[in-house]
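Below is how a single chain appears once it has passed through the pipeline. First comes the sequence as given, then the structure the pipeline wrote out for it. We keep one example in the README because the format questions we get most often are answered faster by looking than by reading.
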Amino acid sequence: MRTETVKMNSPKAWLLAARPKTLTGAAVPVMIGLSIAWVDAKMYGDDVFSWTAAVLCLLFAFIMQIDANFINDFFDYVKGTDDRETRLGPERACTQGWVGIDAMKRAIAATTCLACVVGLPLVFYGGLEMVLVGVVCVLFCFLYTTHLSYMGLGDVLVLVFFGLVPVSITYYVQLHTFSVEVIIVSLACGLVIDALLLVNNFRDRDTDRDAGKMTLVVRIGAEAALRLYLGVGVVACLMGVMFWLNGHVLAFVLPLVYLALHAFTWLRMKQIGRGRELNQCLGETARNIFVYGVLVSIGMLL
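Resulting structure:
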């Protein structure tokens, strides 16, 4: 496996540790929540929607994603889950020696504090309950890597923290209410983003099993995982019927383009089967997620 030459603790090292490609998963739920809130805000008046709150939601999501990446990088290294010789996925900063352990500890503390500082002003828009939301987000950011992912609960957490929480809370911050449409759409968004975790765990199923990391893919097996990967995309698009029923036909029709891309990636996964080549499917899945978010948002706004 080719290892990139990176100076320790350099800006390039921290950029690689932050995993900028994963920010798609942070942006899409907020994007969808904001697009629905923007449309619904028209019922209350043009001055209801707050762009300041929108920016804060997006920044909080980005910082928490980077924080999660740092935490994952550090604890997987400490636990020995990441091995330079057997790792199939993209290289990790601590394992490769790009970022020192003490430096990563400080970075985790700094990004956690920064997320809290950025998120705290949302109290003025969403109420004191935003403090509880922030605490829960930070808590599970640590619990995911340290405990829950080893128990096969990662997919559930994706549904909650990349679906229900960011979509519905982004909407709530703007309009101080929820709706059935928002809840269903947030679950659909969580399913779409869960495809990224599924392909990641599908690639790592053998090494995860050896490390005692009992992900959902390890538990159900490769064939069932492939069916589940295809299924999350199909079910997410079917849940989009809620858009149609509420008069947003394009928000249902446009994401069918995403479904076609998702199906092609699924076929590629089946063909490759195992090994580092599955990283192609990881990149395609991240692209598909972004396409889904953009198409849903455009469909709502039009």
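The chain has a mean pLDDT of 90.

See the next section for the split statistics.
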